[in-house]
Amino acid sequence: MNIQMRQGTIDDLPAVKEIIRSAQLKLAASGSPQWSGEDAPSEARLRTDMEDGNHYVFLINQQIIGTAALTKGQETAYETIVYGQWEKNDADYAVIHRFAILPERNGRGYAALFFKLLLAAARESGMSEVRIDTHPLNRAMQKVITNHAFQFKGIIHLPIPHGERYAYQVFL
Fold first, then answer.
1. Residue 96, class by beta-carbon neighbours within 10 Å (0-12 exposed, 13-18 middle, 19+ buried)?
2. 114-117-119 Cα angle (round to 5)
C-alpha cells in the first residue's frame, strides 16, 4: 500500500470538493450543523489554501482520500476564548482547518495517520504549537484530536450561525 501526503494543487480540486461534500453529508446525518452554512469550505477558500501553499492531500495508492489546511500565524477567531484559556498566547502557531477523510475510508486509521503527518509538517516548518477547533457535535473529529495529545482549552465563537467551537492545543 502506497501512503502519501503532499501539498494540494488546483488539479486536486475536484477530488477535494467531493471529499468535502461527502463529509458534509456525514456531519448532517450525525446532527452536526458544522459545514452546513456559512462555514462550509467554499471552492474559493480551498483555492486560496492551495495557492498559498497551505493545503494538503492524503493519498492511498494514488487516490486522494483526505484533505486539510495547515496554516501558520495567529488566528483572529482564537483571540477570545471562554471557559478556559490558551496555555500561551503570544507566539505564532499552526492551525489545522478543513480536515476531512472520505467517509467510506473511515475506521481504518487513515485519519490518525493523516493527522500525524500534518503535525510532522508543522514541526518541520518550525512551529512548536498547533491549534484546532471543531463543532461540539463533531464527536468523530474530537476523538481524532484528543487521540493526538491535544488538550481541550475552551470554547471559541465563529461569527456565523452555530459558531460555537471546542478549541484544542498541542505543543510539539
1. buried
2. 110
Domains of the chain: total: 1
Which cell is 135 given?
Answer: 463543532
Residue 92 burial by Cβ neighbours in a 10 Å radius (0-12, 13-18, 19+)? exposed
Res 1: pLDDT: 86
- Nearest one of 149, 62, 138 to 98, comparing CA atoms: 138
The parent domain of residue 147 ranges over: 3-171
Q: 34-65 pLDDT, tens per residue?
A: 999 878 999 999 999 999 999 999 999 999 99
147: domain CATH number is 3.40.630.30
User: Averaged over 112-139, what is the pLDDT?
Assistant: 96
Cell representation of residue 109: 486509521
